[in-house]
Inverse folding.
C-alpha cells in the first residue's frame, strides 16, 4: 500500500509541475483546472475500483464529487471534496482504507460518508452544504444511487426552497457589495471569498441554476436575460481571477487565497505583467472586480423570473418622478421615458447625481450604464462650462452625505471628467505597511468618514464639523489631498499645485482656492507633528504660524482625522485621537497671540500676494533662479502635471515683456489656464503660468520650451512680433472655442484706485477663448501701461484677470480721462 501511495504521489507531483509549473502550456485557466480535475477523477476512480469491489453489497455504494471539485474547478492545492453515499450493508473497513489512501497520495480530502436519509436530514441546515450538493457530480460506484440522490432529494429541495435560497444568495451578495467593512478595493484581496471575486461569481451562477436551470456562464445569456456582452465580460473576468488563484497556489506550494503585497510581484511576473508589474496587476484586478460588481448589481435588481424589475416599477404609481427621465422608488433612481431635450446632456447628468444626494438614493444598474455611456460619448468641452462647475459646487455644498454620491460619480466616469487628474489615481496601489486600499478608494473613504462626523460620538469633532461655515472646502480638500501621488516627488507639494488648478477650473473664488491649496499642502502637518511624544512649544508655534486663521485649523483637524481613519482598520487609535486633540487645543491657544508674516526680500510692496500664491519650496527655487540671472538672461522652467504644465519664467523687466512672452506661449498652442505675474524692485520679473498643452502637433514639453526660447531671441532682435507668432499659429491650427457657456458672459472691465496705495487695479472678466490673454496684454502694452503684478485665472469657461498697473513712469494712474480710453480699447479688443 505504501509503494502504491508513493507512486501516485510522485505521479501527482509531476502532473502538477507539467500543468501549473514554469513550462506550462498556454491553455486558459478554466481548461487548466478542468484538466487537473479530470486527472484527479481518473486516479480516484482507479483507486475506488480496486479498493471497493463492484459485486455484492458494495453495489449500494457511490462516490460523488462536491463543491468546486463537483464543478470541475480544482486548483493546484484545493481541497478535494467527495461524498461516499451508501444504503447500508457496505464494507466500512474498505471505505475507510480507500479514504486513507486518498490522503496518502497527497490530496487534501474533504470526505463525508452518508446515507440518503442522512443527506435529507442536513439539507436546509447550512447553505454551504446545500450548495455543495447542488454542484454534486457522479464519480464512481452505483450510478442509480446518485440519480436517486438527485431526483428524490436535491431537485425537490431546490424547487421547494427556490425563493429562500435566492434570498440567501442575494443577502450574501448585498452584505459584501454594500458593506464598508468588506471594501472592494483592499490592496491585499481574498481571491476566493473577497467581494466580487470568485465566490461571488459562483453565487450568481448558483442562483441562476436554481432559478432557470443554467449550468455554466454561457447559459446566462439565453436563459437569464443577461446580454451576450455581459456574459463575455463575466467569463473574461472569472478567468482572470482564476489565473491569479492558480499562480498564488503554485508559488506558495499550498492553498493560499490572499494576494499579499509581498507576493504580488511574483504573481505579476507569472501572469505576464513583468516582475515590476505589481501595480499594473492590481490595477487590472480592481478593474475586474469593478466589472463584476456592476453585473452583480444588475442581478440584484431582477425578480425571480430573471427580468429587470424596473420594467414593472415604471408602471407603479408609487414611483416618484423627480425630473426629466428620472424617477425614484425605495431609494433607487431609475430612468423613465421622456421626450425632454435636456435628457442626455451633461447638466442632466449632474441633476441625476444631485437627486441621488438629496434623496440619499443609489442609481439602478440601468441608469448607471446609461450615464456611463453618455459620459464616455459626450465631448470633454461639455464638462467645462460654468453651469457644470456651479452644479458640482452645489452638490459639494449639500448637507446630505457626499461619500456615496462621489463613489457613484467615480464608478460612472463623471468624476474624472470634472477632475481629470483624479483618473491618474484609479486603481493605483500604494505599497507601504498601512495603506489597505487603492489610492482612489482611500480618498473616497475619507469623504464617507467625513460624512459620519455629523453623528460623531466625540462631541468636539461633531461640534467642529457642524459649525463649519463652508463644508465644501473640507470635501474638496479631502477629494484632492492625495491627488499628487500619481507622479514622482513630494505629493503634498505637487497636490497643492494641482488643487489650485482644479479649484480655478471648477469656478471657486480666489480665497476659496487659496484655502483648499493650503489644506492639501499641509494635510500631513498635524499627523506628523502629533507623532512627536511631546511636541515642543516652538514646534507648535511654528505650525500655528502657517495657519491663516482658526477656520483653517478646524478644517485641517477634520481632514487629518478623516485621512488617518481611512488608511486602514488599525491606523486610528485612542492614543492617536488624544495626541491630535492636544495638538489642536495647544495650537488654538497660540492663534490668539499676535503674529507677523515677513515679506520676501527683493520683492516690491505686492510681496504679500506672492507669499499667498506660492509654496515654500517654490519660493526657495525662485530666489535661486532670480539670483542666477545675468543681465539678459531668460529662464524657462517647465514642470508637467496630470492634465497641465506649469511654466515659470524669469527675465529682465521691460515694456512689453509680458505681451511678448504670452505671444510665445500662445504660438506653441498652449491654452493659458492661469498666470501669476510678479516684479522685483531690482528690475526682474517672475511669471508663473499654468498651461494646457495642445493636441497638435504632438511635441514634448522640452521641444516646446526650445521653440519658445528661439522665438524669444527673434523677438528681442526685432525679426518677428508677438502678433505675427499668434497669427501664424491660428492660421496653421484654427482653434475651436475652448469653453462654451449657454449664456455668453459680457465683457466687463473695471478700474479701481482705492484698494492699492501704489497701483491701479484693472479687473477684466469675459468669456475664455484662445489668445485672449495675448490681446489683453498687447492692448495694455500699446498704451504704455506698466504691469507690476497680475493674477490671471480661468474659472471654468470665464476668464477673470486682475492686473496691478502703473503708467510708464511707475506712478498710479489717477487721471480718469487717461483710464477711460484704455478701458474702451480693451472692450473693443475683447469683443
Amino acid at each position: 500500500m505504501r509503494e502504491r501511495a508513493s507512486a501516485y504521489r510522485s505521479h501527482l507531483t509531476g502532473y502538477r509541475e507539467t500543468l501549473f509549473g514554469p513550462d506550462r502550456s498556454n491553455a486558459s485557466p478554466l481548461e487548466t483546472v478542468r484538466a487537473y480535475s479530470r486527472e484527479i477523477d481518473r486516479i480516484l476512480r482507479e483507486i475506488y475500483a480496486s479498493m471497493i469491489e463492484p459485486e455484492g453489497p458494495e453495489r449500494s455504494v457511490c462516490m460523488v464529487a462536491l463543491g468546486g471539485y463537483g464543478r470541475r474547478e480544482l486548483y493546484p492545492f484545493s481541497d478535494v471534496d467527495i461524498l461516499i453515499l451508501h444504503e447500508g450493508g457496505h464494507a466500512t473497513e474498505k471505505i475507510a482504507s480507500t479514504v486513507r489512501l486518498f490522503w496518502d497520495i497527497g490530496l487534501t480530502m474533504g470526505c463525508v460518508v452518508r446515507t440518503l436519509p442522512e443527506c435529507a436530514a442536513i439539507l436546509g441546515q447550512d447553505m454551504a452544504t446545500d450548495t455543495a450538493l447542488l454542484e454534486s457530480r457522479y464519480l464512481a460506484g452505483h450510478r442509480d444511487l446518485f440519480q436517486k440522490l438527485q431526483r428524490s432529494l436535491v431537485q425537490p429541495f431546490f424547487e421547494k426552497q427556490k425563493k429562500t435560497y435566492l434570498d440567501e444568495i442575494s443577502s450574501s451578495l448585498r452584505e459584501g457589495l454594500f458593506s464598508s467593512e468588506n471594501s472592494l478595493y483592499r490592496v491585499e484581496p481574498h481571491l476566493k471569498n473577497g467581494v466580487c471575486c470568485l465566490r461571488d461569481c459562483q453565487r450568481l451562477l448558483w442562483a441562476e441554476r436554481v432559478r432557470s436551470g443554467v449550468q455554466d456562464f454561457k447559459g446566462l445569456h439565453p436563459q437569464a436575460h443577461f446580454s451576450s456582452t455581459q456574459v463575455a465580460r463575466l467569463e473574461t473576468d472569472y478567468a482572470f481571477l482564476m489565473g491569479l488563484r492558480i499562480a498564488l497556489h503554485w508559488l506558495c506550494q499550498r492553498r493560499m487565497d490572499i494576494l499579499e503585497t509581498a507576493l504580488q510581484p511574483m504573481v505579476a511576473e507569472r501572469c505576464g505583467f513583468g516582475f515590476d508589474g505589481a501595480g499594473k496587476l492590481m490595477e487590472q484586478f480592481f478593474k475586474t472586480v469593478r466589472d463584476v460588481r456592476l453585473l452583480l448589481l444588475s442581478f440584484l435588481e431582477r425578480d425571480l423570473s430573471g427580468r429587470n424589475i424596473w420594467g414593472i416599477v415604471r408602471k407603479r404609481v408609487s414611483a416618484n418622478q423627480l425630473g426629466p427621465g428620472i424617477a425614484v422608488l425605495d431609494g433607487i433612481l431609475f430612468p423613465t421615458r421622456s421626450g425632454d431635450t435636456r435628457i442626455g446632456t451633461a447638466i442632466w447628468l449632474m441633476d441625476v447625481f444631485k437627486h441621488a444626494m438629496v434623496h440619499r438614493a443609489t442609481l439602478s444598474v440601468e441608469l448607471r450604464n446609461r450615464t456611463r455611456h453618455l459620459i464616455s460619448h459626450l465631448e470633454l468641452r461639455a464638462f467645462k462650462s460654468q453651469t457644470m462647475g456651479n452644479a458640482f459646487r452645489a452638490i459639494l455644498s449639500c448637507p446630505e452625505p457626499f461619500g456615496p454620491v462621489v463613489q457613484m460619480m467615480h464608478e460612472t466616469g463623471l468624476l474624472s471628467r470634472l477632475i481629470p487628474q483624479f483618473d491618474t489615481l484609479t486603481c493605483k496601489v500604494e505599497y507601504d505597511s498601512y495603506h489597505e486600499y487603492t489610492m482612489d478608494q482611500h480618498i473616497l473613504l475619507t469623504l464617507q468618514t467625513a460624512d459620519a462626523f455629523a453623528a460623531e460620538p466625540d462631541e468636539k469633532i461633531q461640534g467642529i464639523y457642524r459649525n463649519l461655515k463652508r463644508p465644501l472646502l473640507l470635501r474638496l480638500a479631502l477629494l484632492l489631498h492625495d491627488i499628487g501621488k500619481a507622479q514622482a516627488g513630494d505629493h503634498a507639494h505637487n497636490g497643492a499645485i494641482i488643487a489650485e488648478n482644479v479649484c480655478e477650473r471648477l469656478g471657486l473664488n480666489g480665497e476659496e482656492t487659496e484655502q483648499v491649496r493650503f489644506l492639501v499642502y499641509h494635510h500631513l502637518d498635524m499627523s506628523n507633528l502629533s507623532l512627536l511624544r511631546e511636541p515642543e512649544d516652538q514646534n507648535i508655534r511654528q505650525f500655528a504660524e502657517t495657519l491663516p486663521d482658526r477656520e483653517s485649523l478646524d478644517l485641517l483637524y477634520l481632514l487629518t482625522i478623516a485621512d488617518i481613519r481611512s488608511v486602514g482598520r488599525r491606523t486610528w487609535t485612542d492614543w492617536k485621537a488624544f495626541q491630535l486633540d492636544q495638538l489642536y487645543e495647544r495650537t488654538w491657544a497660540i492663534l490668539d497671540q499676535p503674529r507677523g508674516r515677513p515679506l520676501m526680500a527683493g520683492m516690491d510692496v505686492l510681496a504679500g500676494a506672492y507669499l499667498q500664491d506660492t509654496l515654500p519650496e517654490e519660493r526657495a527655487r525662485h530666489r535661486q533662479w532670480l539670483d542666477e540671472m545675468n543681465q539678459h538672461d531668460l529662464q524657462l522652467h517647465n514642470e508637467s502635471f496630470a492634465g497641465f504644465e506649469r511654466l515659470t519664467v524669469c527675465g529682465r523687466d521691460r515694456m512689453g515683456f509680458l505681451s511678448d512672452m504670452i505671444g510665445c506661449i500662445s504660438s506653441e498652442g498652449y491654452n493659458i489656464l492661469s498666470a501669476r505675474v510678479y516684479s522685483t524692485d531690482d528690475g526682474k520679473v517672475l511669471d508663473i503660468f499654468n498651461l494646457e498643452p495642445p493636441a497638435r502637433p504632438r511635441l514634448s514639453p522640452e521641444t516646446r520650451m526650445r521653440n519658445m526660447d528661439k522665438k524669444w531671441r527673434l523677438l528681442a532682435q526685432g525679426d518677428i512680433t508677438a502678433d505675427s507668432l499668434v497669427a501664424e499659429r491660428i492660421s496653421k491650427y484654427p482653434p475651436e472655442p475652448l469653453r462654451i457657456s449657454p449664456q455668453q458672459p459680457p465683457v466687463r472691465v473695471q478700474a479701481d484706485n482705492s484698494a492699492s496705495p501704489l497701483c491701479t487695479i484693472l479687473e477684466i472678466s469675459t468669456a475664455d477663448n484662445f489668445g485672449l490673454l495675448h490681446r489683453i496684454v498687447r492692448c495694455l502694452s500699446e498704451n504704455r501701461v506698466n504691469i507690476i503684478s497680475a493674477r490671471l485665472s480661468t474659472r471654468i469657461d470665464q476668464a477673470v484677470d486682475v492686473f496691478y498697473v502703473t503708467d510708464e513712469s511707475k506712478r498710479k494712474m489717477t487721471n480718469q480721462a487717461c483710464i477711460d480710453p484704455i478701458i474702451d480699447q480693451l472692450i473693443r479688443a475683447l469683443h
Summary: The longest strand covers residues 786-795. Confidence is low (pLDDT under 50) at residues 596-606, 738-743. The CA atoms of residues 261 and 431 lie 7 Å apart. The first helix runs from residue 2 to 20.
